[in-house]
């Protein structure tokens, strides 16, 4: 997988929310922060294989819907047990109203 | 719909006659091999917008409830101390005991999930306090509860599986008195304080977290030692009536409510509608229990805070078994099942879903399908 991938319209994700995006056999979580910036991480929690897009975005954190573990979605840092392993982040850009992802 | 149960027996294909509930035994391996461990569980479909609203965090309700809790603890303790030496202290300690030994169970639970308060340090602070009061090591029990949510009532996987089959009724009775669990908790505290984590606990507590369990146990040990020293110095039981003993004499309410969560229901199914129970309770019990009576809803959506569970309950009621109408009704359902399990350990209370519900994922537990028309393809 190489190059930027078109994900969605920028308005498809509400502020302080997250959306699942599957591509090339991988799953990602695409975030829109409260200050309208966009971020991306791997789509599944590092604790167990649960889709983070079903979780809750609170400020800069994503909370896993299964065990309430938390990550900083800007940095991928694991913040709260039971997650112990950081989340892989990916580059995101917005151009002409579209969100693009560059998988790491 | 009335009490939505069908009594049944799970003597279908693949159900062993005797279960091994240890976390390192053959049933633990079987659960992994058959895909019951860390499985995909059923969830009622809820629009994202509604789910976001339900998940929203707020400090307000939990601060209010915590202030009421602390005020209740302070007033009942003050009454107990004031009237110490007379029988008038008894009602005050009865209240203090429930607030200390039972309300701490639900605070441990909600703050462990991190959903009670929006502000995390508040969750963490109340979690540590509640862990001490309910005598659950903060690290061990945080991870045991994560496993409980991953593998709810999966034999060999769930460390918080409340009642084994056949049930040990004497043990359940002792749990109401708090003595047995307190004894076990003290033994565990001493074990952790010496740096020992059991092989079973190692299956769900990662190595990086074990030193925290040891550290907390040593702090607790120092607190209990200081309390006992004070009691000896004063030649009085009063310090222990305030710290330590309430975990025993006030435990009955959380045992009563906790047994209802899963008692008598199906094992080894991956649908919380089958193995968890929602019970309507009085306002007092709901305050003590912080709405964990909505237990199917909690397990299905653990990121919904306790104060939003009644709204979640209303939203997904069409997809769930009818709630048990009262604590008494729950025990009327459970006790006969426990008694029957003494001679028929495969017996369990089978939940019936309303016509509006999505069917069970019958293919994952075919032993249920033949008797449940809605579960057939």
List keywords for this structure.
heterodimer; A: 104 residues; mainly beta; Rieske Iron-sulfur Protein; 4-stranded antiparallel β-sheet; 46% strand; B: 377 residues; 55% helix; disordered N terminus; disordered C terminus
Can you identify the CATH class of chain A?
A: Mainly Beta
- How many helical elements of chain A? 0
* CA(first)-CA(last) distance of chain B: 24 Å
Strand order of the largest sheet of chain B: 1-2
Q: Please indicate the percent range of residues of chain A in DSSP E strands (runs of 2 or more).
A: over 45%
Question: Can you walk me through this structure?
Answer:
The complex is a heterodimer of chains A (104) and B (377). Chain A has 104 residues and is an all-beta fold. Chain A has one domain: Rieske Iron-sulfur Protein (3-layer Sandwich), CATH 2.102.10.10. Chain A is built from no helices and ten strands. In chain A, the strands form two sheets. In chain A, strands 1-10-9-4-3-2 form a six-stranded antiparallel beta sheet, with no helix packed on it. A four-stranded antiparallel beta sheet of chain A has the order 5-6-7-8, with no helix packed on it. Chain A is globular. The termini of chain A are close together. The mean pLDDT of chain A is 95. Chain B has 377 residues and is an all-alpha fold. Chain B has one domain (5-375). Helices cover 55% and strands 3% of the residues of chain B. Chain B has 19 helices and two strands. A two-stranded antiparallel ribbon of chain B has the order 1-2. In chain B, helix 3 runs antiparallel to helix 4, helix 5 (103-113) packs antiparallel against helix 6 (120-134) and helix 9 crosses helix 11. The two termini of chain B are 24 Å apart. Mean pLDDT of chain B is 91; it is low at 1-16 and 372-377. The chains are: A mainly beta (104), B mainly alpha (377). Chains A and B meet through loops of A and helix 2 and helix 7 of B.
């Amino acid at each position: 997988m190489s190059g930027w991938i078109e994900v969605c319209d920028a308005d498809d994700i509400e502020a302080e929310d997250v959306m699942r995006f599957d591509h090339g056999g991988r799953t990602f979580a695409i975030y829109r922060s409260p200050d309208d910036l966009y971020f991306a991480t791997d789509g599944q929690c590092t604790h167990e294989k649960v889709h983070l897009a079903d979780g809750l975005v609170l400020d800069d954190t994503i909370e896993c819907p299964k065990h309430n573990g938390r990550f900083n979605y800007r940095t991928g840092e694991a913040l709260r047990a039971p997650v112990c392993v950081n989340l892989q982040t990916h580059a995101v850009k917005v151009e002409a109203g579209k969100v693009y992802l560059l998988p790491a | 719909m009335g009490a939505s149960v069908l009594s049944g027996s799970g003597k279908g294909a693949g159900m062993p006659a005797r279960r091994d509930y240890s976390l390192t035994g053959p049933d633990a391996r079987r659960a992994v091999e058959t895909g019951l461990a860390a499985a995909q569980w059923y969830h009622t479909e809820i629009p994202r917008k509604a789910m976001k609203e339900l998940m929203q965090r707020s400090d307000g309700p939990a601060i209010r409830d915590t202030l009421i809790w602390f005020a209740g603890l302070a007033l009942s303790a003050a009454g107990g101390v004031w009237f110490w030496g007379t029988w008038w202290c008894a009602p005050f300690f009865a209240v203090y005991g429930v607030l200390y030994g039972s309300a701490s169970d639900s605070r441990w639970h909600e703050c462990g999930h991190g959903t009670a308060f929006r502000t995390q340090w508040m969750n963490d602070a109340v979690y540590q306090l509640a862990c001490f009061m309910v005598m659950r090591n903060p690290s061990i029990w945080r991870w045991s509860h994560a496993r409980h949510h991953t593998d709810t009532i999966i034999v060999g996987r769930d460390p918080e599986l409340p009642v084994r089959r056949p049930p040990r009724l004497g043990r359940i009775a002792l749990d109401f008195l708090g003595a047995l669990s307190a004894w076990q908790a003290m033994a565990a505290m001493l074990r952790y304080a010496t740096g020992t984590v059991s092989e079973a606990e190692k299956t769900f507590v990662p190595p990086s977290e074990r030193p925290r369990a040891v550290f907390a146990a040593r702090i607790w040990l120092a607190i209990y030692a200081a309390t006992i020293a004070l009691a000896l110095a004063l030649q009085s039981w009063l310090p222990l009536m305030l710290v330590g003993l309430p975990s025993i004499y006030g435990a009955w309410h959380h045992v009563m409510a906790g047994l209802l969560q899963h008692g008598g229901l199906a094992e080894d199914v991956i649908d919380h509608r089958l193995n968890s129970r929602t019970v309507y309770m009085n306002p007092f019990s709901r305050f003590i229990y912080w709405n964990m009576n909505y237990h199917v809803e909690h397990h299905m959506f653990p990121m919904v805070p306790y104060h939003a569970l009644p709204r979640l309950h209303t939203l997904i009621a069409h997809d769930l078994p009818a709630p048990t109408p009262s604590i008494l009704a729950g025990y009327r359902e459970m006790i006969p099942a426990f008694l029957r399990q003494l001679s028929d350990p495969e017996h369990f209370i089978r939940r019936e879903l309303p016509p509006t519900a999505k069917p069970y994922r019958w293919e994952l537990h075919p032993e249920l399908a033949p008797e449940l028309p809605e579960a057939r393809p």
